[in-house]
Design goal:
Chain lengths: 265, 265
């Protein structure tokens, strides 16, 4: 299998970097090919701006969606973005690894998404009609591929629990898992999350590394989060609202968009 | 009143910029003082890295939380960050205005949060004991101040509705409203969100501008989102899990962290 790890931590000796290396070693030992986009080491440019669209005339207004569409269609995206798109096309599995900063990904990784997810590639794909609303949410260029998050959170695990004050971790990660990974078609595996990351001793690191190696060994067999596909009857088209009454009683919010049980179970 | 608008769109002629100017004119006409941090115009640096901590020895490992704590305590944050902290201290009300990209803020604005929200300023403040868990979620340096989001979403409003496929907009914005604004103490007003932003004609712009001006006129009187305070009995300390049974039947997820009704109603 070909695996791309997009990694976003500024310190090469960080806990995140150590866990990344554990994952790489395990994957390579199993015979997989691994590429790493180490965004800080690459000095990745974070912000979408005019420089991303060198073919855009200097007197033309920058409409990011339109500019992205034109640049992808005409092959005039910048070389750094093209290289990441090539890696995404090469990879069977994508792993995003980052520390959770302010309940979201670090800016540099958000900037990777904002810049690499071009219109015509990651969105704006497929037929829009009264039968389907684009190739997204379960369909798209990444259909058949897998993705997962490896996240390091500074806070306590209880604070991210179902009733924890920060909000449940699965809900905090929904905009990424569903909105960034499932959107262009990935099957999204449950995230690997470590908590209280400033209190790691050697024993805890060893235990966490063991769990992470197990997750790497089961990348191909772990059942994905059973998000609902958009174009297969669960949603009204084009309002894309979930049909009434098809969810179990008491389910609301983000959880509406998962099947009650994995289709395989 | 002193109002800071932190603005994140790369195009000076964008819809977002036009709405920003509508807001500024309305606020200034009412006699308020307005400052704008136009992040793209300022060429704001997005990513947290070693350059943010000039006092950190070059052979020292970068632990972002520890480095932030030391730099804030010793006054060695960079000048651009210090200037933003000064503006936050000056402002009675903070407005974050941005286009919704991939269900979150653009990287450059996330980088403003990641860099400006220093340890000892926006987090890591107050007593941690069996009676309280820091000055956060309703307390903190911003207590008594107000904040709100102005968001432009490209997608359809229905897709962000309670049953919409993208997830409800209030849940998508919870990590920002609750996790970034309420966390250091702001009272958070309901967001001002416009949808289908690539289909704006003059009539729709005029109607949206009218609604936005009304929101600016009522900044001081609009009831904030009634998030629960952390240290006043609703949560177990230190697990910070909401006590059992205090929410209305059927409420779960992020909605747990709001009072069923505004305290004033």
């Amino acid at each position: 299998m070909n695996i791309l790890i997009v990694f976003a931590h500024p310190e090469p000796k960080s806990l995140s970097a150590s866990l990344r290396d554990v994952a790489i070693r395990e994957l390579e030992a199993a015979g997989h090919q691994v590429k790493v986009s180490d965004l800080y080491a690459m000095q990745w440019k974070s912000q979408v701006d005019r420089a991303d669209f060198p073919a855009l005339a200097s007197n033309e207004r920058l409409l990011p969606v339109a500019a992205s569409k034109t640049a992808f269609a005409t092959g005039t995206l910048t070389d750094d973005v093209k290289a990441e798109i090539d890696k995404l096309q090469w990879a069977d599995t994508l792993i995003l690894q980052f520390p959770l900063w302010w309940f979201a990904m670090p800016a540099i990784l958000k900037g990777w998404v904002d810049r690499v997810y071009a219109y015509g590639f990651a969105y704006g794909v497929g037929e829009h009609s009264d039968r389907r609303w684009g190739d997204r949410y379960g369909e798209g260029v990444m259909a058949g591929k897998r993705a997962m998050l490896i996240v390091a959170a500074g806070g306590w695990e209880e604070h991210y629990s179902a009733r924890g004050v920060n909000g449940p971790i699965d809900d905090l990660l929904f905009p990424i898992n569903h909105g960034i990974l499932y959107y262009p078609g990935y099957d999204v595996l449950p995230p690997f999350v470590t908590y209280s990351t400033d209190r790691f001793d050697e024993m805890r690191f060893a235990a966490t590394a063991r769990e992470l190696r197990e997750r790497m060994r089961t990348l191909e067999t772990t059942p994905p989060i059973p998000y609902r596909k958009q174009n297969y009857g669960d949603y009204h088209i084009p309002s894309m609202e979930l049909r009434g009454g098809i969810e179990p009683a008491g389910v609301s919010g983000f959880a509406l968009h998962q099947l009650p049980h994995s289709p395989d179970s």
